[in-house]
Specification:
The chain is α+β, with helices and mostly antiparallel strands. It is 38% helix and 18% strand.
Length: 141
């Protein structure tokens, strides 16, 4: 009986934050909302592609449906180098919001779709890589 009261009090104290938890009341993001890509630094790694032209092109990847929502990227090329990546469509999910800048940064460093998935946002990461690869393939075609 001596332990019952402290166990009961600690259980209630632990459950109070759970009872008071309220999900975010933010409005869902529209497909037009974008996440800005970090600007590449002056010490960006060299592109594995020969830079035969200095022209710039913007290519949208395919829309990839995922369990969390559609994913679509837009890639800006300077010559054959990936200059920036922008999300055109992304799931309205906290893990996705946190993962997108990481995915974009890894893309700019790797200059390809051969990047790691972000832990906690695996589904979005896979959709991102698929849409990115579609944009890269469209650019090379």
């Amino acid at each position: 009986m001596k332990r019952a009261l402290p166990v009961l009090v600690l259980t209630v104290a632990g459950l109070i934050p759970v009872w008071r938890y309220a999900p975010s009341q933010e409005a869902p993001s529209s497909p037009d909302e974008t996440v800005a890509a970090p600007t590449p630094s002056a010490t960006a790694p060299p592109s594995p592609f020969p830079s035969s032209s200095s022209s710039s092109a913007v290519v949208a990847g395919s829309t990839v449906p995922t369990e969390k929502g559609d994913v679509q990227v837009e890639v800006t090329f300077e010559g054959e180098r990936i200059a920036s990546v922008r999300m055109l469509r992304q799931p309205d999910h906290p893990q996705t919001t946190n993962a997108v800048p990481v995915l974009i940064e890894e893309t700019l460093e790797a200059q390809s779709a051969d990047i790691d998935s972000v832990t906690g946002a695996t589904i979005t990461s896979e959709g991102y890589k698929e849409s990115l690869q579609a944009a890269l393939d469209a650019r090379r075609a």
